[in-house]
Amino acid sequence: MSALDSNEIELDTARGTDVPSPARGRRRKNASLVRDTGAGYAFLSPWLLGFLLLTAFPMLASLYLAFTDYDLFRPPQWVGWENFQALFADRRFLTSARVTAVYVLVGTPIKLAAALAVAMLLNMKHRGQGGYRSVFYAPSLIGASVSVAIVWKAMFIDDGIVDRIQQFFGMEPGGWVGDPDRTMPMMILLAVWTFGAPMVIFLAGLKQVPAELYEAASVDGAGPVRKFLRITLPMLSPVLFFNLLLETINAFQVFSSAFIISGGTGGPADSTLFYTLYLYVKGFTQFDMGYASAMAWVLVVVVGLITAVLFRTSKGWVHYSGDSR
Amino acid sequence: MTDHAVTPNLPAQAAGTTMLLEEQTGGRRADAHRRRAAARRRRGVRSVGFHLLLAALTVVVLYPAAWMAMSSLKPSSEIIGNVTLWSDRLSLDNFATAMSGIGGVSFWTFFANSTFLAVMSVIGVVASAAVSAYAFARIEFPGRGLFFAIMIGTLLLPFHVVIIPQYIMFNTFGLVNTFVPLLIGKFLAAEAFFVFLMVQFMRNLPRELDEAARIDGCGHLRIFRSIMLPLMRPAVITSSIFAFIWSWNDFLGPLLYLKRPDLYPLPIALRLYVDQTSVSDYGAQMAMAVLALLPVMLFFILFQRYIVDGVATQGLKG
What we know:
The complex is a heterodimer.
Chain A: H1 2-15, H2 22-30, E1 34-35, H3 37-65, E2 68-69, E3 77-78, H4 82-89, H5 91-122, H6 129-142, H7 146-156, H8 161-168, H9 183-193, H10 196-206, H11 211-219, H12 224-252, H13 256-261, H14 275-285, H15 289-317
Antiparallel strand pairs in A: 2-3
Chain B: H1 2-6, H2 10-27, H3 29-71, H4 93-99, H5 107-138, E1 139-140, H6 144-156, H7 160-172, H8 180-187, H9 192-203, H10 207-215, H11 220-231, H12 233-249, H13 252-257, H14 266-276, H15 282-314
Helix pairs in contact in B: 4-15, 5-8, 5-9, 5-12, 6-9, 10-11, 12-15, 14-15
């Protein structure tokens, strides 16, 4: 029960849109739900069955497979830690880890910075705000689609429009798709193009910041930078935390755009060999399913650690509204 | 635990802050007044700047989509490297080529597969998530807190950890090359986002409603069907839209489970098309890419309020 409540509150405030009202708090304290174990499990059964069948059991199975050699045809052979040892000797694996790390560490902050900047611009209360919000959100809906990946490739190919624009400005000619040094910026640009989703969430958070705080700060002679650092950022920190967590986890799982742009190879020179793409290649084109399971578990552990670190450090920089002073 | 202890004081503290601030501003009201008049004068100029900046950003953001749309109407030779959107030779020829099908399979087959998958996903997601959410939001039973925590945990779990055993499982049951692996999760509320969204929505519905119904002798099934479900329309609509769009854009699922072209949904067909056609036929590729996105864009134009507000309040991803 307490686990439930703390979870719920954490996520409520993290979204910054559902600040508990006094009425809600009172209701939660007093009204007790009907206790009915039979009905509870009956209604829960779709999720519970799905969880057991599609998450819990597969997770355990993949943990087992991670310690085996399995190709889908012959029965799995127990090999102990061999897969994990092989991982760290596998240059392509290390490349895929590095590619993904760069994408997450560089792409996510840029995307979030763009989202925050545009959200603050839109929050300046001019007409047409809603229209801009919709337009900027639209790419988020299609950013991971095959269609957009094809368009991206066509734009960044040799003699494509990006190449033409480069040449117009007297920069070194050449497409980005075939240049191992420029595929990552291309992928990050695609991610930044979908800044709309975190922007919409930032904007909802900004609307919750009481205008009186800014007025009071103005009266006290605070400039825009000081207001941003002392009011906007702390008041927005729960939303920032939420976006950071979600965008980081999403960035780890990028797949279809890299798959389409590289034609499923992760090339050129493995520069778009994202972690998930290599996992797919290992598991479903080479049918090395034990190895791929080991990769999957390394990913779970890494993402789990990052999530834990984010939650742990969040105590220091995330201010839940009200106690920010 | 600590959060729990802190949160109940929040509203009181916030109110205190506000009152204090109002007192401070009250003393300097005249000053604020002068400031506001000056601000009004400046606002016209700033508004123009604001709109210029955002208009420029809109052009940048929309350019790739506009370029795709216009390229689909141009002859293949005029696409790559052509920055301008307009051409004198616009026609629908590319669409005719794209819709003539791939490898003997009609375009409409792909379209029908995508539609079937998306519609079934909507039905499955809404039904299973609403039922499960009712258990989390409205019934007290042992294990509820634990399961809720697990459900939240699955939101953060990289789904790649389950795709290999799931594939082995579905392969064992002979379900590769059927739609079952793609749909079963939708009917079993496996996408926790939808359950979470509905739990949050249901929690905000007044509890007096079901209490009254219970006093009148209604069981849970009746309360769920006759009271909760009608009130949950906004959450149902938001979930339906996202379930449809996510299914429509899904690539990895069909890539894993569908190996026969007549079963392909549009994204996989599109990939096949790009791999098969000669590199130079960009026009038909673009036309096919546009066709594959058309329903998503249509949904967006029709339901943009629901979509964008859904993201704002629920933190959904696109």
